[in-house]
Structures are given as structure tokens and as C-alpha cells.
Amino acid sequence: MTEEQSGLSFLPLGGTGEIGMNLNLYQLDGVWLAVDCGIGFSGNDTPEAEVLMPDPVFIAERHKSLCGLVITHAHEDHLGAVAHLWPQLRCPIYATPFASAVLRRKLGEAHLLHQVKIHTIRPGGHFEVGPFNLEFVPVTHSVPEAQALILRTPHGTVVHTGDWKLDNEPVVGPVTDLERFRAIGDEGVLAMVCDSTNVFKGGPSGTEGSVRDSMAELIGSLKGRIAVTCFASNVARVESIARAARAAGREVMVVGRSLRNLEVAARECGYLADLPPFLTEQDANTVPDHRLLMMITGSQGEPRSALSRIASDVHPNISLGEGDTVIYSSRMIPGNEQAVMAVQDNLTRRGVTVLTDKDHLVHVSGHATSDDLRHLYSLVRPKISVPTHGEWRHLTTHAALARDAGAEAILLEDGDVLSLAPGRPEIVDTAPTGRLALDGGRLLPMTGGVLAARRKMLFNGMVLASFAVDDEGYVIGEPKISAPGLLEPDDPESTRISEEFADAIDEIPDELRRDDATFRDAAKTALRRALGRKLQKRPLVDVHLLRV
Length: 548
Ligand SMILES: [Zn+2]
Description:
Bound molecules: zinc ion
Strand content: 15-25%
Number of strands: 27
Shape: globular
Radius of gyration: 28 Å
Low-confidence stretches: none
Distance between the termini: 55 Å
Strand order of the largest sheet: 8-7-6-3-2-1-21-22
């Protein structure tokens, strides 16, 4: 793959697999355009990391030919990585007013706001970025102002749907602009890169309007304290919950930073306009329980979220118990089941009634069902279909549906470079891919030394030995051993290991003692030997050699 390559190609860097972190690249005659830049939350597979994002090394090396980054909507898996990865991309960003508002808050927190040029594009707007002629087409999704992106190029038109669904009652924002999709289909579409998340569900998508009605009825019928947890970015849902609360004579209190941030971004863009500002925890002190509804973060069982802390009864201001209700107005993201169940279990133990979408209509998906997909294919009529945003079984099911609709479906792994035109579509190259983990304030490669060591320590513990030697390399005093996460400090096994380690380093030949590095390696081997088989573990070992 070279910058000089002519034609049009597509390269996903993070959209497939259980943890979808979108970072898509299009190349037109040597110039690159990025679409979305998101994070994913790690499941049980990678306990050493919580927040993951695609490794952008491929495009970072070519950032001079990257003309821009377009954000399709304000979900974390589409824009959550921007503040972390922008220093490697250094390109202008294009987004709708709502996504821009969310992004500005994140860039502000990362002290990048003054460096990043954000072009705010109205929903449905036309704009040019480098050689790409672009158009936003409004779609319905569980966040305001979600847009499909149309890329018009001399080699053909690509429809990049982003996340979308059909909903004739979306409550906030317009319905998916099907007439526009039909008109674009009439122009002729080379390829459609399309959301696969909800392909296993048939029939029409549930409407947000039906959730609003059901939520109002449910909240009106409940006594005691009520807490509702949902995704902060689902402004239509936040509005539905707030309206239901008011209809039931309850004031709304917002708990958790992400809900508070999203409320600010939403109001900045004119959403929630006819609802009074939500109360903070401090404001709500004087409001009696039966007059209050709490909106709370933590629908995915995040351990530090407000809901997890309330469930464990360690929240500083809020406690729930007998007679109170928690409503989960959200789906459980695959991988989070155990964490969510643990929180629900703790709540139930406290006597709290937990209600989910299994009990009442309190949630509908923001993604297209197979019926929605068929409808869109019938309008857009792409020659090529590239299913994206899902695990392999979602992608293959979507591909079969696309073939039925007359498209040539092509399945890609992250890193596959798909040449779309000229000529037949084919995978022509593979770009390096990987995942970066957010570790405190740093980004670390998941496959790198630090996190590999963390993983090893997590499962096998660590043994650290220190010893002092004189100029000649002879040991002075007794070596010290510590084994955090493996042995208690007073475990007799520690003493045994220390003694055996001391004996083993005595036996290291003189010629290995002159150079610190060789001596240390030999001492590590001695330490591993001293650990022996008794623990039946292979902990991470390290040795500190001090020449005195
Ligand atoms: Zn989304």
C-alpha cells in the first residue's frame, strides 16, 4: 500500500469483533479520510485494561496525507478516542453541532481544544474535505444528529451508514431520510458500508415513542424512590424519562459525570429545551423521596459508577433499599453481563426492585433490524456491500442479506485494505492493526511488554529479589525477597525461597559476575530455580543488583 496508489479503497481499523471501536479509513488517489474514532470497553478477556482503542499507527505514519476526520455521531465507540489519538492524527475534524459539543468537552479536558480545528456541519449538510465530496444524511439512532456519510468520488459513490435504524417515532430529531437514500440510490452507488449490530432481529425496530409511553405509565405506577439508568448520550431517552417523571410529579436529579456532561452538551444544542435544569445531588437534599427521580450512570455495571456504588451501599449521598426501584433503560453490551448482574444482585439484596427491558418496554435498540436493512438496500441498491460493526457471525448474516438484495458482499477483518475501484473489488493489502489500552493517562499497546507483564502479575504474581555485591561481585549480606500478590510477607515459603536464592547466587560462576547485565540474568535464573515447583506458578520475576 503506497501513498501514490490511485483509485478508491476502504480500510477498517477497529470495527470488527466483540469490542467495536470504529476507526475507518478511505483512500482516494493517495489522500486519506478517517471516519469515526472510538473507544471500546474491555470485557472479561482483558482484565488488565478497561478502555481500549484502535492502534492508529498505519494512519499516524501517513498523517500528512490525512485530510480530515468525520464523526458520524456522538457515541463513545465513534468519537471516544479522538482526544487520545488526535495528537497522532493532527487533522481537522468534521461533525454535527451535537457531536462537536460533546467532542469539545472531551478535547477541553485533554487540553487540546485550542489545537484542534472542528468544523461544525449541519445535519444533512454538504461539505468538501480534501478531494472528497461529502454529504451527511440524517438517520435515526440512539443519540441526536446521527448521520450517514455519503462520499462522492470520481471512482464512484460510497454510502457509509454509521449506526442507524428505522423509527417513525424517534421522539428527538428527524426520522431516517429514506427519500434522500432513494435519490442517492438513483444516482448509482458503488458501495455501502453498513451497520450489522442488530441483524439477527427481524421485524420492525421498536420505536422510541413506544418506550416513552410505557416509561410514563411505569413511573406513574411506582412508589418509593426511583432510579433510572440509561446511556447519557441517548438524549431522546433522557427526555422521555424526564417527562415521565414530571407527569408523575417527580423532580429529576442527575447523578454521575457523564450524564451531567451530556446534559450540558444537549442543552447547548437546543435539546431538552422545555425541561427545567436537572437537579444536582446537593439541590435534591430537600426534595422528599416520592417527589424525586434519579437518573444514574452505570447501566453497564462499571465498578466506579454511581449505580455500582449505590448497589454496594458506598455512595456518599444516596442509598436505596426496600420499596425502591431501579429501572435499566438500556441494553446490556455483550461482555458486560457479569458486571451488570453483580450490580443487580447487590440491589436486589438490599430489597430494591430491579426492572429491565425483560419486564417492561423500557428500551429499544438504536440499530437496524434485518427488515430495516432490507429496506435500505432496496433504496440504495449498492453494487458492493461491506458489512461492518459486528462480530463475524453478524457480518456473515448481513452479507447473506446483502447478496439477496443483489449486492456483492465482501467481509473484511480489521486491517484489510479493500480496493473498491477501479476494477473489481478486492483485498489488496493488510495494514498493521492493534489495540491500545488507556492506562491511567497513558496509551499502552495491548501486546506490549508493560501490559503483558501486568497480565502475568495478575494471574501469577510477582517475585522481586534484591541483593548487594562488592566490586568483585561477591554478595554482601542477605538477599531480600518480596512476592506481592503471591505470598504473605510472613509466609515461611518466603524464607525458604530467600535461602535457596542465596545459595543459588553463591554458585554463579565468577566470569558471569563482572558485568551487571549477565550477573542479573544469571540471578534471575537462580531465582526461578529457587521458586521451584512447589507453588506451581510461573510468576514474573525481577532482580535488583546493587554494587556497593
Ligand atoms: Zn452508535
